[in-house]
Structures are given as C-alpha cells and as structure tokens.
Amino acid sequence: MTIVVALGTLLGAVPFGPVRFGPAGALFVGLAVGALDPRLGEGLGLVQTLGLALFVYTVGLAAGSGFFRDLRRQLPLMGGSVVVLAVVAGAAMAGGALLGLAPPLRSGAFAGAMTSTPALAAATGLAGTDEPAVGYSLAYPVGVTVTILVVAAVLARPWRARRDPDPVAGVGLVDISVEVDRGGRLGDIPGVADQRVRLSYLSRGGRTRVVSPDEVLLAGDRVVVVGPAADVTEVRERLGHQVTEHLADDRRTVRFRRFLVSDPGVAGRTVGDLDVPSRFHGVVTRVRRGGLDLLAHDGLVLELGDRVRVVAPRGQLPQIAALLGDSERKVSEIDALSLGVGLALGLLVGLVSVPLPGGLTFALGSAAGPLVVGMVLGRLERTGPIVWGLPSTANLTLRQLGLLLFLGATGLASGQAFAAQAFTGLGLGVVLLAVALALVGAVLFVVLARLVGTSAPRAAGGLAGFVGQPAILAYANGRTVDERIDAGYAALFALGIIVKILLVQVIGSG
Hints:
Layout: H1 2-12, H2 25-34, H3 45-69, H4 75-98, H5 103-113, H6 117-127, H7 131-156, H8 168-171, E1 173-180, E2 184-185, E3 198-204, E4 207-210, E5 216-217, E6 222-228, H9 229-239, E7 240-243, E8 254-260, H10 271-274, H11 276-280, E9 283-289, E10 292-295, E11 307-313, H12 317-324, H13 328-331, H14 336-351, E12 353-355, E13 361-363, H15 365-380, E14 382-383, E15 386-387, H16 392-421, H17 425-451, H18 456-467, H19 470-479, H20 483-509
Antiparallel strand pairs: 1-6, 1-7, 2-5, 3-4, 3-6, 8-11, 9-10, 9-11, 12-13, 14-15
C-alpha cells in the first residue's frame, strides 16, 4: 500500500501537457499493481473508509465557513449548478444506454468526468462491484483535461461583473504617512467608521504613539493610513497630504510585528474580541492568511496559522505574543480530540438511513456524512474549549494523506476489473461518454456564470469546485492572483460533492 502511495505521488507530479493527475496518480498505480494479483487488493475496506472520511471531513472544515458566509451572494450560481449537474447526470444515463454501458460503468464515468472521489465511493457501495472504479479511472483524466482547457479559455478572455466585488488581491494593501491639514473626529473620516481603512501611528508634538479609537486629529498631526489604495487615497485627500518620512520607520517607542495565531483560545474569535486597543494600547492592521494580506476589521474571525500584524508600544509586544501564542511548533500540531470527535460524528451521521418512497432508503455514508459535519463544524469554528478548525498546513496534509490512501486502496481492489475491460469497446465507450459529460458540464456552467452576473475569476474557481478538482483550482490560481477564485471554489466544492453523491446513486440504480 505504501509503495502504491509513493509511486502514485510520483506519477501525479508528472505533467502531461497542462495536466497533472495529482493524488489520482495513486489510483492509476493501484490499478496497475492490483491487476497483477487479486490478493493485493484484499482486506482494504477499512483503509478506504478511513481515507475517504479523513479527506471529506478536512474539506468540510476548510470550506464550511466560506460556504455559509457566501451562501446568499452565490445562491443563484449554486442553485444553477445543481440544475447543471442534474443535466449532466441525465446525459450520463442517456449516453451510457446509447453506448451499451451498464449502470455501474455509467455511474463511474459520471464520477470520473466530474472528478468526484466521494461519488465514486457511493457508486461502488451501491453496485457492490468494482465496475464504477473502472469507469472512474478511464473518465478521470478526461474530466481534468477538458475542464482545464475550459478554465484556460475563461481566464484568457475575462469579463467583469458589476455585482461581483473587486478582489482584495487585485487591489492590494498600502500604508502611507499623511500630515493632517484638516482635523476632526476619527469616526467622521470616510472609510474609518466602516473599517475600509485602519489608522495606526500618530505623531504629535514630536511624540509617536498609537491612534486611539476615539481620537480627535489636529492640524499638524501625522498618521499612518492602511488599506486598499483607492480608500487610502480618499482618506489622504480628506485629511491633508502625504509625507515622505514614514512613521513606521521610527521604532523607538512604537513598533509593528506579525504574530502567529497558535493559541486555540484565540482561534475562532474575532479581531474585535481581542480588544487590543484597550488592553495593549495597540491596533491590529492586517491579517496574513494563505499568502494574502487581509485588512483587519473587528468582525474578521481569526484562524490557527494566521499571521496578525499589530502596531503597539514596544513594551506591550511580549504580552501580545503570549495572547496569540506565536509558536510555530504549536500551530503545526493537530488536536487529536477535536479531529477524532469530528470524524466520529461524521461517520455516525453517515450511518443514518432515511426511508424513501418505493421501499428505498438513503444514507449519506462515509462519503457525505463527514463532509456535512465538517462543514457545520467549520462554520462554528469552536464549541466551548474545543476548536474544530485545523491549521491550513495540517488540514492540507491530512486531506492529501486521506485521499492518497483511499485512491490507492481503491485502485488495488479494482485492478483486476480494470485490466479486463479497459482496452475493450466498453472502455472506449466510457472515454467517449466522459468527453461528452465534461464538455456539457463545463460549458453549461460557464453560461450559467455569465447569466447570474459572476466575474470570470469567480466562474473559474466555481468551475473547479463544481468539478471538484484541486488541480484545476491550482491551475486557475497559477494563471491569475484573485481571491474570488478560491471563494468560488469553496462555495461550490462541498455542494457539488453532496449533489454528485445523490445523483450517482440515481445513475447507478437506473
């Protein structure tokens, strides 16, 4: 198993044109090794279940907060994507029947074209055979390739949407020193009350300190303004003029420093909850998360691994470090209690069966149960002393490990069936069906994004989430720096997984 994972990781890193298979390399290596001897794929059911549960649970934790936060804004796109997936599922059933493919192969082709590993798990459980994995392995590279080509076309000719907010990454944050010509209350300055900008340093009468929340600025004061360039310019024009001598360069009494959020007691709390102005006579100006600088506002929820930039008197810095943790070692550790409890809850929810008309039953299973629970817990952030979220690096590591274990074990268990059907007329039929499904899904989704007023970057990220492929997301992020790509991905990834799990069972039972 470990050899399959290692060789699969190596294969996944090899570029085939614009495509890298990533973790799916473990599936292909597993298929090749499993085809050699059927005994190699025996007794791996527990590994498959654990790997899949670990993968979807960590995805849910990461996507939960963004999913619920953007639910209203992106509801038209999300609702439309459900319709598009239903159309693709209908095409899978009709096209599969036309090509003479059995329902298990159709369901595997649908899961592969939509690159959904949890849907593969649901299809395999319904079929009771390895046929869905064969269809998945043949359709998967087709789905990745076709979708990447569509994403490339979208980003090559981007469009703007008036209702889609401009990206923070595109605007960037700047900080300048301004000399006050026209004073007044801090709260009366445009952008300050609604926290579009932050003021940090204040120099008055040769003495530098941190701006207080109820400050009244006087003519001759000098202040540092932090925020997006357009908003900073607006504040500068209201107050006075920019000066070349930057107050942040004088560190004799006031300093700025980035602190790492590693204390679980801080994670899940907002910047406002820290009460830095009252407790430490300082101000939080920025939060760096995932390579992106975010302007700090009182409602911003902190996560483990965030780097918080604080401007404060020199003597207060050790106390602020103690509050936030500021420990690289702690932020790399995993809370086994929250992880174990969350996974157990997810698996228990997956076992609950709901009776349906016609004597049928529906259960989320190990594919969707941990995903749904992870999303809810990711939205809650914490429950009392328990912090559900994981540092982004730890989350990505566990996610990768779980996916590799599941795909490797699935490949080993399916190797014999793959060898028997891959190079036959049925195999060619699966590939043709996958091309049609991937094209129909991607094109309809882009048309939908244009109709509901979504920008091109958000549409590209949404398409990656709609298909459910991190490699496509990485490709889109490599083409342009825009946080709307990740926002679109987070909004549709979890939803897409759940809908595909439901639809694949309809396809497999037809």
